[in-house]
Amino acid sequence: MTPQDVRSLRPAKARELFRDGLRTPTAGWCRGWTQANLLAVPRALAYDLLLFAQRNPKSCPVLDVGDPGEHRTGIFAGDLRTDLPGYRVYENGVPVAEVADVRDVWRADLVPFLIGCSFTFEDALIQAGVPIRHIDQGVNVPMYVTSVPCRPAGGLSGPMVVSMRPVPAALVATAIRVTSRYPALHGAPVHAGDPAEIGVTDLHRPDFGDPVEVGPGEIPLFWACGVTPQAAVMASGVPFAIGHLPGHMAITDVRDHHFQVP
Amino acid sequence: MTPQDVRSLRPAKARELFRDGLRTPTAGWCRGWTQANLLAVPRALAYDLLLFAQRNPKSCPVLDVGDPGEHRTGIFAGDLRTDLPGYRVYENGVPVAEVADVRDVWRADLVPFLIGCSFTFEDALIQAGVPIRHIDQGVNVPMYVTSVPCRPAGGLSGPMVVSMRPVPAALVATAIRVTSRYPALHGAPVHAGDPAEIGVTDLHRPDFGDPVEVGPGEIPLFWACGVTPQAAVMASGVPFAIGHLPGHMAITDVRDHHFQVP
């Protein structure tokens, strides 16, 4: 399918393709629909995760939380165990599998969290004239583990993860203004410019996703990223969790406008 | 003290007065500082309460959550057991005491939640020319239990509680615009006009606080209220909880501007 094809798909159709085995980053998919990070943890850990999210709202804006064992939520009419284009399974903080289907490891006590994703505001950036490099290059967005600590909650702690988009200097203000309007999808950038200031040493070697070119006259902008709670799962040695494969998101049934503030 | 006196007090000084026994509603106190609702529940109930708040963000915007047994938090440098001007203690969902000090009933497993309060934006309303009737009358704000159900979470369910301010018709748009900028303090009203539409049958008989006059040409505006989780404690028969006396708030050390969005 062409970028134009995937851009105009409805969420249910995209989820069907993922359920049938298509593995792809979801940037540029289903224009106008909200994308979300998935993290499912056992009920015994759910309070720590919800409090971690409350204490770190830039990186962990909670869109919805399912009840234990549920594999759909009010904003996601598909099956959270099959309808994402990729999953990571964690044991004791270590990613032990990257799979296309987690039905065999889903547990009755798992609480699914859906957390806002910055892919959602990329269409608004494009409409405002801000190019999105990873979409233009047809790759996954670059994501980096920073040296910025999150505020801990119970047994959960870890560093903030960011996504990066290079933006022409003259469009930096536009990019900040546009994304500020989506606080539930990470909102405005957390950092602009020198990556070393947030502990990122080499833009060409992202911790997740793919590198993209930063051209002359472009400023790298860094947005808090919903992979942050997965970094906390790893840093904290959480016994069991299921997340999405970074960049391979849950495409929800909620319009992006729903999360736009004036 | 005059209204002008209490308006210009610093939070620490107000808390000292409350600690020394002054019992008063806090509308109009400590201009420029954020006021908050308190609800402390046992750790075993904390997930349900945090999820209830996440699912009902208009009435339960969480400003901060302490760790179990803590009686101060990052945004409140006083003692949550003594520094509010009034408390309500609940057993099995029933208010069993209204007291000035809860040190003797505070428990090591209690998790204190601080939830945004609409008193915080009243100064911005006054600056914008919107009169605040309960301040002018020197009484507590009227609060009503509505027929609007909250979205349940675990064992917690109950109706939305609202506060009411009568606003001259020509200033309704201003009041909505101004309060929209404070989503963490309940934001824009949830209802305007006919109280019967949200199940409020008699404005002269509020469920909490005092009645105020609604003049000719004024529209009653209703804001979601942070007493809502206390209504859920009552409706759900929660074994034990401590809340503030409605209208008698925790005055925090955070500026109201901190919670203002563009």
Could you explain how this protein is built, in words?
- The structure is a homodimer of 262-residue chains.
- Chain A starts with a helix and ends in a 7-residue tail after the last strand.
- In chain A, strand 3 (87-91) and strand 4 form a beta hairpin.
- Chain A has helices at 3-7, 11-19, 43-55, 122-127, 133-137, 172-180, 228-236, and strands at 33-42, 62-65, 87-91, 94-99, 110-116, 143-149, 159-168, 191-192, 218-224, 240-244, 250-255.
- The mean pLDDT of chain A is 97.
- In chain A, 21% of the residues lie in helices and 26% in strands.
- Chain A has 2 domains: 3-118 and 237-259, PSTPO5379-like, CATH 3.40.1640.10; 123-224, PSTPO5379-like fold (2-Layer Sandwich), CATH 3.30.2040.10.
- Chain A is built from 7 helices and 11 strands.
- In chain A, strands 1, 2, 3, 4, 5, 10 and 11 form a 7-stranded antiparallel β-sheet that branches. A 4-stranded antiparallel β-sheet of chain A has the order 6-7-9-8, covered by helices on one side.
- Chain A is an alpha+beta fold and 262 residues long.
- The A-B interface holds A 46-47, 50-51, 54-55, 62, 65, 180, 183, 261-262 and B 46-47, 50-51, 54-55, 62, 65, 180, 183, 261-262.
